[in-house]
Design a protein that fits this description.
heterodimer, A: alpha+beta, Cytochrome Bc1 Complex, Chain A, domain 1, 2 domains, seven-stranded mixed β-sheet, five-stranded mixed β-sheet, 15 helices, globular, B: Cytochrome Bc1 Complex, Chain A, domain 1, six-stranded mixed β-sheet, 17 helices, 40% helix, disordered N terminus
């Protein structure tokens, strides 16, 4: 799950986030995203893609650090830290980023996931240089004070309450990685918990910035209305002076073992009008050659009203109000999550069985050609919709460069999805689902805290 | 400037002569912006079929995508008494089967085109929409016309829809922010035409019959009460040709288009309403007040005033509640203008013990806008924020369609799209204060807090003449008033 600086544009508890692209539909040629790539002597990776359709430009800086890198006893710290990056630096006042973006007609936000922390802005293109100055400034010279730290930590605690405690199913999705992963730090929730957030100190902020926020651990992406030579001159001017520390960037070395048994976990909440269940399997790293087939499988099961889980559980059997499937992938081990929220009065056992049956059917029988063509067209349309704006293009490019460690993947992913066959889908579903162990997580009303007669 | 580091100077030098001018610029302040480039916004093109169907096209050709929306210019405002949710259910059922195709066949056909067929009702309109790649547009419009003109309203689908909607309501009613917002809307409009929830209530949905649905459909879904909006990679001649092919056979009945009663706010008496939700992880704080209609002359001043109050990260509500005090993840307001009368809504979620403080802060910001002129610099920033947001929304086909559709629903000219930026720029400090004075009076405000009542009830007492606590399960959003609040 991703957590953003500001909820104004953040999606609610939607599972999964990685951009998906697809092959061209008949009669339609999808132009590749033309970009340039270079690495500064200090290690900063710089990607740029010109597009003059609108007088706007998007700037993304993705740091290769996420909640998997949270210090011990400080779950949620990478995300808490993300909020601090909008506070003061050597030459920037707290919230001055908003002056440089919102106040001139732009916008900014940031998000933290298991693997990355990304800062992104859109501004009228005449403001590009100022933004590059500001991003370089907070990369090199963050100077947060105690008052700002404490006040923003309270905001993050409210974010925890708003995303986990207040929504009826917040605790359910929060529980999944904790129940599923055995050893990997992905086990810890990105948003953390109140106790660990309270334990964090200003010294932790300083140490985290020094350790992870450095040019050789970052990717800068600029898309939209700019002049390439001018852009690169500004990049040199503002980012080249940022020094690279001598010490190597620490990396998580923990491996997640193959799961050896089927497991079960139960979560509860104080306001759960309808129970829910998730079945979780271990997925390979996002760079695995099996990922395109898994993405197609996930779309067959969970994208749109015509998807298999919706048709079977919600429409035909009427045992669920909502059902979905998510390939929740990471640079390390990921999760394949089938989930459903029960229809009124329907037992969880029936829901669990039906989920299992539908998912297995994809391993046992080849998907018909028309259905396969449908999901490929859906995925293509989705990619086109996402890439309409400089913001969407930057996001797609950064995603490829950072999560796949290969910017060229942004243009390859379309072909890779097009080549997926029904047999490929069956093969990956057998390997990662049918022949693997699963974790079943149920979610029900906490009987000690019954709400006073739900309508 | 005195702190300019040597390494920065060296980096500047390495750029050579071209950068010499830039080198003079100090590093301790952001470099100045360059000359701006204005966004190009073209007026949408308009046409009409002989049967009365309006056709509006907003072109954007850089990506081969088109968003299509068929907009019927009547919505939940025409829900009859005791039938809250009728327009919403009718629109929702359009995509659940036609006389030719079952519900599963219909969604499969739509999704094979790459998009999804979405339908729903708002207060003043009902819509069916889809976004597809350009080559799929004719097939997509064929489906839109089929669901709008020939829906089946099969009894089994009605029951299925009803059961699902009631389940969704159970979930929504367990969310403190949603519950506070729905109740605040009722507290402003009472039993007026905007008083009920658009999607109905747990009590009203079971009352809806197939006859109600078919009658509403026959009454409002007609070409002389509808507009087809296409945004993206298409032009007007193509659009008119496609519209004629797929909607040319649609006939308007001879009966007049049903009109909603003139909307009016019939607010509950003053006081704070508390909805007690045991175990709620946060309190949902909502404040609402009646305001201008969507075609009001001061609508642009209203947008700017609302932007100062609660749009974007740096609005006053977010400054006071989030940035200064850490009381919430975000505080915002929304100006929801409608035919006849609108509503301004504030929504904030906070930990239960802070709820009363947040109610006080929201009221304080409404007061401040009434009594103190907005500083020029702040006004300029909030206007820039609105203008930027508007320009960015036009970068996508669905955002462009949203803006065009909103003007159609408001009965405003499509060419207003081109006027928006200059009109926003013209709003003055006194326009903002005048809007606040006219709309934000304390007697017009209604506040609702949903959460663990025992943690904030006492704190609310000094803020309002009356505080009424309703248990979560006893809330009736169709009741004329509220017991204890007379």
């Amino acid at each position: 799950m991703k957590f953003s600086r500001s909820w104004l544009v953040a999606a609610a508890w939607v599972l999964g986030s990685a951009a998906i692209a697809a092959p061209p539909a008949p009669g339609l040629k999808l132009a590749p995203l033309a970009y340039t790539e270079r690495t500064l002597p200090n290690g900063l990776q710089v990607l740029a893609a010109e597009n003059h359709a609108s007088p706007t430009v998007s700037v993304h800086v993705w740091y290769h650090v996420g909640s998997k890198d949270d210090p011990a006893g400080r779950s949620g710290f990478a995300h808490l830290f993300e909020h601090m990056m909008f506070k003061s630096t050597r030459y920037l006042k707290a919230e001055q980023f908003d002056r440089l973006t919102e106040d001139v007609g732009g916008s900014n936000n940031a998000f933290t996931s298991d693997d990355v922390t990304a800062y992104h802005e859109v501004v009228p293109s005449n403001h590009l240089e100022r933004l590059l100055w500001a991003e370089a400034e907070r990369m090199a010279h963050l100077e947060v004070d105690e008052a700002n730290f404490k006040s923003e930590r309270s905001v993050v605690e409210e974010e925890f309450r708003q995303s986990v405690l207040a929504p009826p199913y917040g605790r359910f999705f929060h529980a999944l990685p904790q129940a599923a992963f055995v050893a990997h730090p992905y086990k810890r929730p990105t948003i953390g918990n109140i106790e660990d957030l309270e334990a964090a100190t200003l010294d932790d902020v300083i140490a985290f910035h020094r350790t992870h926020y450095r040019p050789d651990n970052a990717t800068l992406v600029v898309t939209g209305d700019f002049e390439p030579k001018q852009l690169q001159a500004w990049v040199d001017k503002y980012f080249a002076p940022v020094t690279r520390p001598e010490a190597p960037v620490p990396r998580v070395g923990v491996q997640e073992p193959a799961w050896e048994t089927d497991r079960e976990a139960a979560a509860t909440g104080p306001q759960v009008p309808l129970p829910a269940v998730a079945i979780v399997w271990q997925a390979p790293a996002v760079t695995s050659a099996d990922v395109p087939a898994l993405r197609v499988a996930a779309a067959l099961l969970g994208v749109g009203e015509s998807s298999r889980l919706n048709q079977a559980l919600v429409y035909r059997q009427q045992i669920a109000g909502q059902a979905g499937f998510d390939a929740d992938l990471r640079t390390g081990p990921g999760l394949l999550i089938a989930y459903a929220i029960a229809a009124g009065g329907k037992p969880l056992k029936a829901l669990t069985t039906a989920l299992q049956v539908e998912v297995m059917r994809l391993a046992e029988q080849p998907a018909p050609a028309a259905e396969l063509a449908k999901v490929k067209t859906q995925l293509l349309t989705q990619a086109l919709v996402e890439r309409q704006t400089p913001e969407g293009q930057a996001s797609a490019l950064a995603n490829a460069a950072v999560l796949y460690a290969d910017a060229a993947q942004v243009n390859r992913q379309l072909d890779e999805l097009q080549r997926v066959s029904a047999a490929d889908v069956q093969r990956v579903m057998r390997h990662y689902v049918a022949q693997a162990h699963r974790v079943t997580v149920t979610y029900t009303q906490d009987t000690a805290k019954q709400p006073g007669g739900t309508p | 400037m005195k702190h300019k580091p040597l390494k920065a100077l060296l980096a500047g030098l390495s750029l050579g002569a071209a950068a010499a001018a830039a080198l003079a610029q100090p590093y301790d302040t952001p470099p100045p912006p360059a000359a701006p480039r204005e966004p190009r916004i073209a007026a949408p093109a308009e046409g009409r079929l002989l049967n009365g169907l309006g056709v509006v096209v907003a072109e954007r050709h850089d990506v081969p995508l088109v968003t299509a929306r068929l907009v019927v210019l009547s919505g939940a405002e025409v829900d009859p008494p005791q039938r809250a949710g009728l327009a919403s259910v009718t629109a929702g059922l359009l995509t659940r089967g036609t006389r030719r195709r079952s519900a599963p066949a219909l969604v499969a056909a739509a999704e094979a085109l790459g998009g999804s067929l979405d339908s729903g009702a708002g207060w003043n309109a009902s819509q069916v929409g889809i976004t597809v790649t350009t080559p799929k547009l004719p097939a997509a419009l064929a489906l839109v016309s089929e669901v709008v003109m020939r829906p089946a309203f099969a009894p089994a689908e009605i029951e299925r829809y009803r059961t699902q909607a009631l389940d969704e309501m159970k979930v929504a009613y367990a969310e403190p922010g949603t519950l506070a917002g729905l109740t605040a809307q009722r507290s402003v409009f009472g039993d007026g035409s905007y008083g009920h929830p658009v999607s109905g209530t747990p009590a009203s949905l079971p009352r809806l019959t197939r006859a109600d649905i078919a009658k509403l459909h026959a009454g409002i879904y007609r070409p002389d009460n509808a507009v087809l909006v296409l945004a993206g990679d298409v032009d007007l001649p193509t659009a008119l040709q496609l519209a004629q092919r797929h909607f040319g056979g649609w006939r308007a009945p001879h009966t007049p288009i049903p009109k909603a009663p003139p909307p009016a706010a019939r607010p509950w008496p003053e006081g704070v309403v508390v909805i007690d939700m045991p175990g709620a992880g946060q309190a949902g704080v909502a404040m609402a007040l009646p305001t201008i209609a969507s075609d009001a002359p001061d609508r642009i001043a209203g947008m700017v005033t609302n932007a100062v109050l609660g749009t974007g990260y740096s609005s006053r509500l977010n400054q006071e509640i989030r940035i200064k005090r850490g009381l919430s993840y975000g505080a915002r307001s929304h100006l929801d203008t409608r035919r006849g009368v609108g509503v301004l809504r504030v929504g904030v979620q906070t930990k239960n013990p802070s709820a009363a403080e947040v109610v006080g802060l929201v009221s304080g910001e409404l007061d401040r806008l009434m009594h103190t002129p907005v500083p020029a610099e702040e006004l300029a920033a909030r206007k820039a924020n609105l203008i930027g947001g508007f320009s960015r929304s036009l970068e996508t086909t669905s955002g462009l369609a949203d803006e065009v559709v909103a003007l159609q629903i408001a009965g405003l000219p499509a060419s207003d799209l081109v006027q928006r930026i200059p009109e926003l720029e013209e709003v003055s400090i006194s326009d903002v204060q005048a809007f606040a004075m006219k709309n934000f009076d304390a007697a017009r405000r209604r506040a609702v807090v949903a959460g663990v009542a025992s943690e904030f009830e006492a704190g609310l007492k000094p803020l309002a003449p009356k505080v009424v606590v309703v248990p979560q399960g006893k809330l009736d959003l169709e009741a004329r008033g509220l017991p204890g609040l007379e």
